[in-house]
Write a structure and sequence with these properties.
Catalyzes the reversible cyclization of carbamoyl aspartate to dihydroorotate. This is Dihydroorotase. By secondary structure, the chain is α/β, with parallel strands linked by helices. It has two domains: 3-53 and 379-433, Urease, subunit C, domain 1 (Roll); 57-366, Metal-dependent hydrolases (TIM Barrel, Alpha-Beta Barrel), CATH 3.20.20. Helix content is 28%, strand content 22%. It is built from 13 helices and 20 strands. The chain has helices at 75-84, 103-116, 132-135, 162-171, 183-197, 206-209, 212-229, 264-268, 274-277, 290-301, 317-320, 337-346, 352-366, and strands at 3-13, 16-25, 28-33, 44-47, 52-55, 57-62, 87-92, 120-123, 125-126, 146-149, 176-179, 233-235, 258-263, 307-309, 383-387, 392-393, 412-413, 416-422, 425-429, 432-433. The strands form four sheets. Strands 1, 2, 3, 4, 5, 15, 18, 19 and 20 form a nine-stranded mixed sheet that branches. The chain has a six-stranded parallel sheet with strand order 9-10-11-12-13-14. A three-stranded parallel sheet has the order 6-7-8. Strand 10 (146-149), helix 4 and strand 11 form a beta-alpha-beta unit. Helix 4 crosses helix 7. The chain is globular and about 70 Å long. The two termini are 30 Å apart.
Amino acid sequence: MKKTLIKNAKIVNEGTIFEGDIFIEGDTILEIDESISAKDPNTIIIDAEGKYVLPGVIDDQVHFREPGLTHKGNIASESAAAVAGGITTFMEQPNTKPQTTTIPEWENKMAIAAATSHANYGFMFGGTNNNLDEILKVDINRVPGIKLFLGSSTGNMLVNDEEVLKEIFSKVKLRISLHCEDEDTIKANLQQALNTYGEEIPITEHPKIRSAEACYKSSSKAVELAKQTGGRIHVFHLSTGKETELFDNKLPIEQKQITAEVCIHHLWFSDEDYKEKGAFIKWNPAVKTKSDRDQLWEALLDDRIDVIATDHAPHTIEEKSNTYTNCPSGGPLVQHALPAMLQFVHEGKISIEKVVEKMCHNPARLFDIEKRGYIRKGYKADLVIVDTNNPWTVTKDNILASCGWSPFEGVTFKSRISHTIVNGHIAYHNFKVSAERNAQELSFNR
């Protein structure tokens, strides 16, 4: 059985930083101590002197495009980009083709990931206005949670029947993740823009079309329904300051019925960046004002927002070059999410301990993931080794997402991921992803 010893690390875990060693056997952390000696001469030794070791990042929201949209990316390509970014576990969303709204389609994704994924995997089960019976059949120890689109949906995944929502919220015991934008508000705003600009709507209109009002109207309604029904909801990708008022920090995350997530792009960019970045920062929900960004940061730091994720959603450069109404929303982010957050650590905006809490511990706690998200004896050896003083610049040559571009092109990050370890296997080392895979299906302690 493979043995690995990480020496001289600055270990970041559960709100503390301490220097020590980590001994891994197979896929499990066996020992954590100030000093550990290798007893087996075949032990792989990694000297992490001067570097930080973090738990592997758990990304609770990605779109890896398989099946049906593989010209944009697939589970193999995007999970390779993920491990390059220190993400050892992902939860993929159901808006593929076909949609993941039946158990056979969910099983199909699991089979693809078992054969091709570089990172540990779980797949959200999608809800529609008429598949509650199928939702209630899912195995709660294998499915991370349910995903509902209350806006910006594809296919028939817009759940816009309030009675159906109430029924799902009251009957489903899994965490229900939500995309909240009010479609009627967006349609009215879009029509107004079309009346003004015709087909040449400038990208700077995006945050006005997919407005703060549209977000708040939908998310506030969802929160109110959750309170009425006892639903366990997790509101994805908050983008407005007003929405942060809907959440509180009075309870530990396991006891919260209503939780929230923020994504990297809403913490990094503002509407002032559309002029330079154009459609490459077109997401749904839209990147909004500096004031919104500041309020998101405030809510993240005071624990009203529980999780940081990516909403990784690649599109081709050709697709992104279309006119506003024909240009899809979304972009690649898994490779650069952790380096971006560590950039904020350098700036003193957030501590590295808080980054670990929001990107590693809390997703594990929120979704009841078994034996991941922490550096603990007996836990799976999902680890990231980071050199916080080894700058590198994002260029087309080092982007691993299949789409071949990034909104961070040209950015020089101060921190470099040297190793990503997935279940004891070195999945990534200094810009090279291992051809060997050791990913596992997620299990849940429910």
